[in-house]
Design goal:
By secondary structure, the protein is mainly β. It is about 0% helix and about 65% strand. The chain has a four-stranded mixed β-sheet with strand order 1-7-6-3, with no helix packed on it. The chain has a three-stranded antiparallel β-sheet with strand order 2-5-4, with no helix packed on it.
Amino acid sequence: DKRVNMPVGYRTTVDMPANVTKVTLSDPNIVDVQRNGRKLTFTGQSQGSTTAIVHVKEGRKEVKHRLAVYV
């Protein structure tokens, strides 16, 4: 698992190994997430932690990555 840390109100960008097709957050109240190609931009909304399940397209298959996000 990769760990992402940020304060409330700040943004952090994460580069993924391939284009992101879907992101699911365990608690969407903690962060806002925007995806653009291989990049994910997280914005801290409130203090806490959430897990992001990130689906990326690697060749013909879709691979899931797990990110622990702390605000």
